Design the sequence.
């Protein structure tokens, strides 16, 4: 059974720091991995999608990597800002139902 | 481009009442799904649809019905609301089940059953 784990559960950093969020999954048979951002009381906003054949994707200050063989993905946020404060979720798509299997998320606080 | 639109945003129901959560997308996506998000449980798949007229169960389907009469709409019906169905419900869509494409989520419906 596929399981997705995100560590740490919470992270607090000063503004301007570069940081890495981690996501691990137990079964390497995935179609893709997607990173989302969720603000309190809001929906999920897609940040980056990495196909199973790709190693990384970049969007602005965000860079996501994927290592299927080790079952790991990282989300790198450069020069963090208070506006980056949110919960970050990773999800893998596997199986034939299209189901996304989510981690529990990392709640990030960037202090001014 | 509205993306995925859910209504209502908030709802309070009494135990035993029924209601329909609405979901619509304007991206011509074939694949649509419903998730519920609960503290400590994460997001869990309730039902999904791979196209108009085709639906199937996810991992927590009990107490919910769905139908898909058009490509755009995928409503979720609570047949007889129970306190255990208090949750935040998200509708999501992506281009096609077999395509390796991005999932887009709505803003959620926060449901409280008293």
Sequence:
């Amino acid at each position: 059974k596929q399981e997705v784990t995100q560590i740490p559960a919470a992270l607090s950093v000063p503004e301007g720091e570069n940081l890495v969020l981690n996501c691990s999954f137990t079964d390497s048979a995935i179609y893709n991995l997607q990173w989302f951002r969720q603000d309190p009381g809001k929906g999920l906003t897609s940040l980056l999608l990495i196909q199973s054949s790709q190693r990384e994707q970049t969007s602005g200050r965000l860079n996501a990597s994927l290592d299927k063989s080790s079952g790991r993905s990282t989300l790198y946020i450069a020069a963090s800002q208070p506006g980056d404060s949110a919960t970050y979720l990773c999800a893998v798509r596997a199986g034939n139902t299209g189901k996304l299997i989510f981690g529990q998320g990392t709640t990030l606080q960037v202090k001014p | 481009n509205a993306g995925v639109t859910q209504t209502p945003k908030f709802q309070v129901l009494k135990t035993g009442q029924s209601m329909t959560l609405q979901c619509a997308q304007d991206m011509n996506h074939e694949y649509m799904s419903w998730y519920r998000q609960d503290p400590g449980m994460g997001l869990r798949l309730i039902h999904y649809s791979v196209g108009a007229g085709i639906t199937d169960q996810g991992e927590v389907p009990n107490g919910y019905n769905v139908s898909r009469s058009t490509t755009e709409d995928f409503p979720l019906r609570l047949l007889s609301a129970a306190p255990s169905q208090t949750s935040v419900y998200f509708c999501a869509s992506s281009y096609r089940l077999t395509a390796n494409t991005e999932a887009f989520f709505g803003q959620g419906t926060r449901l409280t059953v008293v």
